[in-house]
Predict the 3D structure of the following.
Amino acid sequence: MFAAMRTGSNFLEANLNAMQGVTCHGEVFNPTFIGKSNQVEFMGLSLADRAADPMAFIRTMRAGTQGLSGFRYFHDHDPRVFDAVLEDPLCAKIVLTRNPIESYVSLKIAQQTGQWKLTNVNKIKTAQAHFDRAEFEAHLTDLQDFQMKIMHGLQVTGQAAFYIDYDDINDLDVLNGLAAFLGVSGLESLDNSLKKQNPEEISQKVLNVDEMERVLSRLDRFNLARTPNFEPRRAPMVPGFVASRNAPLLYMPMKSGPVAEVTGWLERFGGLDGDFTQKSLRQWKRARPLHRSFTVLRHPLARAHEAFVTQILSGQFKEIRNQLANVYKLPLPELGQPYPDTKAHKDGFLAFLKWIKLNLSGQTGMRVDAHWATQAAILQGFAQFQSPDLVLREDRLAEGLAFLAAEVCKPAPEGAAPRPVFDDVLVSIYDADLEDAARDTYARDYIAFGFQDWRKA
């Protein structure tokens, strides 16, 4: 059962245990106990045994239980268990949810009263919660991230879970539907040994209701401010990384950026190493404990123009060029010929920017090449192996590289540090139309990295 604190998981567990042939052992991977509060041993295994081999712990649990055996898993439980359980198609998944503000207020009250379960209404403890904006937003983020992780895991493995909300756990028909999902007999009645705590409406359970309402009204419940992103995830591109042979510096290039300039600077330390695999790169890192990795951002407009000139106009990407001309009707000159004038070049580049937007949105059927993929997506790809220690900007490149050399206690190479590439052609065609198109196409990068208009950069 994937759940969270104060979502009704105790009640649902009690009713699962009332089903013939089903045993839910509680929070067996809670960081501080096994199964239930203060319990530190389980089927002859200790906390240390569980920590040493969580999957052996699960095998023991299965072997020692007749029928179906299971447990409750919260977002802060042993992360080693999550993927193993989620990827196992023989393991049935129940996903229990609750309105986040209700679970937050219930959690605050339980923390004050110390009462986490109620079996006798005569012993109920009451309190009012104080709503804290930062605390609630952290609570909400944890819940949403956990739910998205579950949903993604189910999708990529082609599985379905039984989703049940807090408001439905008292519905006998719903619980019997859950029993059918598990392949066991249903219940004749609910297990009512646990009683609902704090049944009052939210406004009666919170001290600073007005503040809570103001904060909640500002939350974007329907994600209206979200910028849709259909750009495919990228691989780390480790074989393209470049390292200095005599300095512990690793460059993680972004194509159509200042790659030649930065690589040339790195080479002046005394040679380069490259063509890494993940294994050989880890070996390189282990041998250089002071190492620093870095990448360099280029303004999206300048980077797109670099890709346009070097990959499309040059014919380097011949098949893509042909499709751009024949299918998308981009105004391109004859291969090997320049545009007749700056207006024609600007019109062709503007059409290319608009095509990139379609391409990034998955609307073209053509690959999203690394030369014009968003820099945000490329950085996320790097992070699948390792995030760079430093992200430099092309317009402050000399200062950034000097800082890097000092970081690894190496004198900067002789000769001037590379300067930002000054694209004379782009200067001659630049106008507000191109800037607006770049902002529209690369909104993700402009927002993520705070790029100004190109001529102000």
About this structure: The CA atoms of residues 137 and 219 lie 9 Å apart. The first helix runs from residue 9 to 17. The chain has a mean pLDDT of 92. The chain is about 45% helix and 10% strand.
